[in-house]
From TrEMBL:
Species annotation: Streptococcus chosunensis
Protein name (database record): Uncharacterized protein
């Protein structure tokens, strides 16, 4: 089971995030300007007797 959260840091931007198996697609708004950054934080957890959870942060910069 996957859980995706989209938070509005600036009310101007709302992210469209879709999960496709092990892939994640993020649609950047059309009006994003060069130099704008988007911070994507993912959480991954296995399903075992002793669960392990990790977070990864990716920073996307518009060119």
């Amino acid at each position: 089971m996957a859980s995706l959260h989209s938070e509005e840091v600036d009310p101007h931007y709302v992210f469209d995030i879709t999960e496709e198996g092990a892939s994640l697609t993020v649609h950047i708004p059309d009006d994003a300007k060069s130099g704008d950054t988007f911070h994507i934080i993912t959480e991954v957890q296995n399903v075992t007797e002793t669960p392990f959870k990790t977070y990864v942060r990716r920073i996307l910069t518009v060119k």
